[in-house]
Structures are given as structure tokens and as C-alpha cells.
Write a sequence for this structure.
């Protein structure tokens, strides 16, 4: 149960970062830095 909630939270965070990038509020480099470890976490699940 906790893993599912954590995975959902990480996916929400990545979506939020996608939105910030689309709106020009963060740079591509900032996006990569924010999302890289989160994607690695999802891939390891």
C-alpha cells in the first residue's frame, strides 16, 4: 500500500515538473535535475 502511494506521489511530482517546464517557469536543466532521480525510483519499482 505504501509503495503504491509513494509511486503515485512521485508521478504527481513529475507531472507538476512537466507543467512548470511547459509554462517556462523552470529550465530544461532544472527539470532534468528535479526529475532524474524520481524516474530512477519509478523504474526500480
Amino acid at each position: 500500500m505504501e509503495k503504491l502511494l509513494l509511486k503515485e506521489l512521485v508521478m504527481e511530482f513529475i507531472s507538476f515538473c512537466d507543467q512548470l517546464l511547459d509554462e517556462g517557469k523552470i529550465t530544461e536543466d532544472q527539470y532534468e535535475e528535479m526529475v532524474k532521480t524520481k524516474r530512477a525510483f519509478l523504474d526500480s519499482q
